[in-house]
TrEMBL record:
Source organism per UniProt: Desmophyllum pertusum
Highest taxon listed in the record's lineage: Eukaryota
Keywords: Membrane, Repeat, Transmembrane, Transmembrane helix
Main location: membrane
Name of the protein in question: PKD/REJ-like domain-containing protein
Length: 313
């Protein structure tokens, strides 16, 4: 008998009846009554400030008074679907964030997943306003200045990314990386954008630093791959000199993730979870970008070869 756990409601009572008929026609039945676990309740979450500036304001999100019989509770903080802090994290998380969209009045959703020991979760959503920084706007500051400010977050002496990594704060490091990438690749009203060299430097640096980490869990792996997917997206340079090395690093990292996935899948006591599904989707996203990069690189090399033949002719 297979029960779809997704069809079960929290804190509800169910009855299973099993009827059996033997080969000689004898009949029997059994009844099982059970109650599903309730979801965390009676708590709330709040931001330290409701409005700030991209990559300048440090937002702290705190949760209070959440209760449940199935303890301990875990808290996962996300910007939409991008992890900020995960797993057995404390009831608070701090991070910088990219600017919101002007179409949404610069509002960003922060989703906080509060989960009990048996996997029943409730989602608390906070909305905060994050305005663009004039210091990171190529329309208001020189492109060189903006590029330098963004690279200083991840490269150079005592950069913030390295600080997070040394303290083992992978979630905060990855959210900083995502914020930097999104600011570097955003469209501007005046049409001015960072040079492709600066974008490539940022993306390759982040991929190299983050894929060198051996993930301790599927959540950590998914958090890192969220950055890798953005760093290797369509907007990135597909003909960079280090692209082959970057693809190799990503392949090695996805292999590590696949081993974690296999371990989880082979654990008969561990049911199929959202973490498994999200991690598998992240691996697919990374591999899709790699295949696309390889395809674009081959086309670029083919076009270059055709130009050389044309010039010789």
């Amino acid at each position: 008998m297979i029960i779809n756990k997704n069809s079960l409601q929290p804190n509800s009572t169910y009855r299973l009846m099993l009827f059996v008929t033997s080969l000689v026609g004898t009949e029997g039945f059994s009844v099982l009554d059970f109650e599903t676990a309730g979801e965390p309740h009676s708590g709330y979450c709040t931001p330290s400030v409701s409005e700030g500036v991209s990559l300048e304001t440090e937002f702290t999100f705190d949760c209070y008074n959440w209760q449940d019989e199935s303890i301990p509770l875990t808290y996962e903080f996300r910007l939409r679907d991008d992890p900020i802090s995960y797993g057995k994290s404390p009831r608070s998380a701090s991070t910088v964030l990219p600017a919101g969209s002007p179409e949404d009045d610069y509002q960003l959703p922060i989703n906080i997943i509060i989960k009990n020991a048996v996997g029943v979760a409730v989602v608390e959503t906070l909305f905060i306003k994050v305005k663009p920084s004039s210091k990171l706007d190529p329309c208001l500051s020189s492109i060189k200045e903006v590029g330098n400010k963004l690279t200083n977050y991840v490269i150079g002496e005592r950069n913030e990314l390295e600080g997070f990594l040394k303290k083992g704060e992978i979630g905060q490091a990855c959210q900083l990386a995502l914020s930097v990438l999104k600011e570097a690749n955003k469209k501007t009203d005046c049409g001015q954008t960072l040079s492709q060299d600066t974008k490539t430097l940022l993306s390759t640096t982040l991929v190299v630093k983050l894929t060198s980490i051996t993930p301790e869990s599927l959540q950590m792996s998914r958090t890192i791959m969220a950055v890798v997917i953005v760093a290797t997206g369509k907007q990135q340079d597909k003909t960079c000199d280090s692209c082959e090395n970057i693809m190799n690093l990503i392949m090695v990292f996805t292999d590590k993730t696949n081993k974690l996935l296999l371990t989880a899948i082979n654990d008969l006591e561990e049911p199929f979870t959202a973490e498994l599904e999200e991690s598998a989707a992240s691996v697919t996203g990374c591999l899709t970008n790699i295949l696309q990069s390889a395809s674009d690189g081959s086309q670029a090399n083919g076009a270059s070869g055709e130009n050389q033949i044309s010039q010789k002719a």
